[in-house]
């Protein structure tokens, strides 16, 4: 490469990277490049998911992309002086990005392109295998698409882990029309950010997966319901939909096939419960997000009373590669009945927080120590909440259990959306149990009594336990209350809020003792 | 949160929300898109908008009010020039979020949903910003900040107040 050709430099436009100064770094790179007379072509890619190294700057060299991070704006002149544009070593250098241990050990199927490409470039997307799945699907009968997804073993990535192919078959066979596809991108679970990363880093993948779902079930209209807490993801997704439509990947004549699919992006309004599928439908229809009784299943009578496929963003984003590479390719990843990969999200008190996409079956120990590098504080890891705010707290004695749906169910825990939040030994588990109930009370839709009232009473009972009042009686009351919520709630919010509470009580009883 | 239609400072809001409602009313399930559009334009949803929306969507005022009241996002009173959200979720708690929260409330002299006397900012809680690998996280308007310690927080507030004074 000659000196006059602009050197391609990547600075993520992902909101995690932006949150720690990526825009300032990008500006600084442009100013310094101009000052040095070394033209650069700046690409705002998604994040590689190595958040402790964000902003992670990459330079394209003949040997491959070289990584530098975490880069602050004030580091930029020094990087230029060291010759980073030619991939020269620097104290912030990590060598070839693809060979960094955190990335090299991953199995990125759903996230194969995230961090690699310019998220909004249709050319980039297609150059990296994009739309291959859609192109294949458009030549298949709907039944064949459904079969492919069924054979892949894909289960819902939102939490309930229901087989995706079976859900699709129900909608395909339902007689009413029109039919809808709703993409659940209301990623409200704390400790999760894979939907956001995908929407910001590879939005066409979600559009492609949603379109394939529509072809499989005969839907002509789709909605992506994204949360309002993700303003950046919303803007990128909105632009991507407009560009995909302009290029014929959405709209009245999909890829010239004569088939039609319209996709609209909708914004939630700060209600966690709208991540529950029937509450989401209510919200899309313009009402408060109150959970619906089931049956009827949304697959039979969903949005506007019509058959509706509702899938999590991660489920739909897994579909393009299944269609492109075939069911067997995907199915061969994983263990037992947990097929394929899950983009796990490492967060909380962890040194190397970020996204780790791996086949099911690795353990928390591998996740926490091989990838995470232990706690950020340097203190012992004491408790790990897996699966969001309704997920159980897992103690160290269970860190060697494989992350697969069934193995986790067996210990009263769940994998959910793959969020892993780490706490060191300074955590007060009685406080965390109280927070779980407080969160449930804050976010309850109010339709069913166990959740609406139970969560409020739960906070009060835990307060009395913490204060040392009638401990034995209040502990018994809390168990009974948890049992009522578990068995009597209408949906998973009230039905699972006891998980973090009970696991905290079971594994960390000493924190509930009077101090 | 305090709320009263009588507190509407500008009765001409009806003139502003009318075209917004007209632009969205024909979308299926138009309620949330309309409320978002009004709030994006005005910063809040004035009580005067409620009967107009009800009329456009052929539903009762109570239904519109019910939606407005249900969702945490919709404001029924004008916010400060900037809205500052502190993440209260588990990942941020694991990295000192509670201490940051206490610091913020003390420094600003504000409780949640309150607006500072100079009108510069409104403080709100939020339950996850999806920036959990860079906790603790804070949102200012549409900007997300990560790894926010007390020092970074204080610098942020100084910046916001400065911007507010010259605006």
TrEMBL record, chain A:
It comes from Candidatus Thiodictyon syntrophicum. PROSITE patterns: COMPLEX1_51K_1, COMPLEX1_51K_2. Belongs to the complex I 51 kDa subunit family. Pfam families: Complex1_51K, NADH_4Fe-4S. It comes from the Bacteria. Signal peptide: none annotated. Its cofactor is FMN; [4Fe-4S] cluster. SMART domains: NADH_4Fe-4S. Residues 430-475 form the NADH-ubiquinone oxidoreductase 51kDa subunit iron-sulphur binding domain. The keyword ATP-binding does not apply. This is NADH-quinone oxidoreductase subunit F. Keywords: 4Fe-4S, Iron, Iron-sulfur, Metal-binding, Plasmid. CDD domains: TRX_Fd_FDH_beta. One of its GO terms (molecular function) is FMN binding. InterPro entries: NADH-UbQ_OxRdtase_51kDa_CS, Nuo51_FMN-bd, Nuo51_FMN-bd_sf, Nuop51_4Fe4S-bd, Nuop51_4Fe4S-bd_sf.
Automatic annotation (TrEMBL), chain B:
The keyword Metal-binding applies. SUPFAM superfamilies: Thioredoxin-like. Its cofactor is [2Fe-2S] cluster. Binds 1 [2Fe-2S] cluster. It holds the Pfam family 2Fe-2S_thioredx. It comes from the Bacteria. InterPro entries: NuoE-like, NuoE_N, Thioredoxin-like_sf. One of its GO terms (molecular function) is NADH dehydrogenase activity. [2Fe-2S] cluster binds at residues 87, 92, 128, 132. Keywords: 2Fe-2S, Iron, Iron-sulfur, Metal-binding, Plasmid. Belongs to the complex I 24 kDa subunit family. This is NADH-quinone oxidoreductase subunit E.
């Amino acid at each position: 490469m000659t000196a006059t050709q602009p050197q391609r430099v990547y600075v993520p436009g992902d909101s995690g990277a932006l949150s720690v100064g990526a825009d300032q770094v990008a500006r600084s790179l442009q100013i310094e490049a101009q000052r040095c007379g070394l033209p650069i072509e700046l690409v705002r890619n998604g994040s590689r998911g190595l958040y402790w190294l964000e902003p992670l700057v990459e330079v394209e060299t003949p040997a491959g992309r070289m990584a530098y991070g975490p880069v602050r704006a004030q580091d930029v002149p020094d990087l230029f002086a060291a010759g980073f544009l030619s991939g020269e070593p620097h104290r912030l250098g990590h060598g070839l990005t693809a060979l960094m241990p955190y990335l090299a050990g991953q199995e990125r199927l759903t996230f194969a392109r995230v961090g690699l490409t310019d998220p909004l470039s249709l050319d980039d997307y297609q150059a990296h295998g994009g739309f291959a799945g859609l192109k294949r699907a458009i030549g298949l009968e709907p039944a064949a698409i459904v079969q492919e997804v069924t054979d892949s073993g894909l289960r819902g990535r939102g939490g309930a882990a229901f087989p995706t192919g079976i859900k699709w078959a129900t909608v395909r066979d339902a007689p009413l029309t029109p039919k809808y596809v709703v993409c659940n991108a209301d990623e409200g679970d704390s400790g999760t950010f894979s939907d956001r990363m995908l929407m910001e880093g590879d939005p066409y993948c979600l559009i492609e997966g949603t379109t394939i779902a529509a072809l499989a079930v005969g839907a002509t209209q789709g909605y992506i319901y994204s949360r309002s807490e993700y303003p950046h993801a919303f803007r990128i997704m909105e632009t991507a939909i407009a560009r995909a439509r302009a290029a014929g990947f959405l709209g009245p004549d999909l890829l010239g096939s004569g088939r039609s699919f319209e996709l609209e992006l909708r914004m939630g309004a700060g209600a966690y419960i709208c991540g529950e599928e029937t509450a989401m439908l209510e919200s899309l229809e313009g009402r408060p997000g109150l959970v619906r009784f089931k049956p009827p299943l949304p697959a039979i009578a969903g949005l506007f009373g019509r058959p509706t496929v509702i899938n999590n963003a991660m489920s739909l984003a897994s579909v393009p590669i299944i269609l492109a590479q075939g069911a067997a390719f995907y199915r061969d990843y994983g263990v037992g009945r947990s097929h394929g990969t899950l983009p796990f999200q490492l967060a909380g008190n962890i040194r190397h927080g970020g996204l780790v996409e791996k086949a099911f079956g690795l353990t928390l120990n591998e996740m926490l120590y091989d990838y995470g590098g232990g706690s950020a504080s340097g203190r012992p890891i004491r408790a790990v909440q897996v699966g969001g705010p309704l997920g159980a707290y897992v103690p160290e004695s269970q860190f060697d259990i494989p992350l697969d749906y069934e193995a986790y169910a067996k210990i009263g825990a769940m994998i959910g959306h793959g969020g892993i939040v780490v706490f060191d030994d300074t955590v007060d588990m009685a406080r965390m149990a109280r927070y779980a109930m407080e969160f449930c009370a804050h976010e309850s839709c109010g339709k069913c009594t166990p959740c609406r009232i139970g969560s409020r009473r739960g906070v009060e009972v835990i307060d009395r336990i913490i204060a040392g009042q009638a401990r034995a009686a209040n502990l018994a009351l809390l168990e009974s209350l948890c049992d009522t919520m578990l068995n009597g709630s209408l949906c998973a919010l009230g039905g699972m809020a006891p998980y973090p509470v009970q696991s905290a009580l079971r594994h960390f009883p000493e924190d509930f003792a009077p101090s | 949160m305090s709320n009263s239609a009588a507190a509407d400072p500008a009765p001409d809001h009806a003139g502003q929300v009318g075209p917004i409602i007209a632009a969205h009313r024909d979308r299926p399930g138009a309620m949330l898109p309309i409320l978002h559009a009004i709030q994006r334009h005005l910063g809040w949803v004035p009580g005067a908008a409620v009967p107009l929306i009800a009329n456009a969507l052929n539903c009762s005022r109570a239904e519109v009010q019910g939606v407005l009241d249900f969702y945490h996002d919709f404001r029924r009173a004008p916010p400060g020039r900037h809205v500052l959200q502190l993440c209260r979720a588990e990942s941020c708690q694991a990295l000192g979020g509670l201490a940051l929260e206490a610091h913020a409330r003390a420094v600003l002299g504000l409780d949640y949903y309150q607006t500072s006397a100079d009108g510069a900012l409104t403080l709100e809680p939020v339950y996850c910003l999806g920036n959990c690998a860079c906790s603790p996280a804070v949102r200012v308007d549409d900007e997300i900040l990560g790894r926010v310690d007390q020092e970074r927080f204080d610098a942020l507030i100084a910046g916001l107040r400065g911007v507010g004074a010259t605006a």
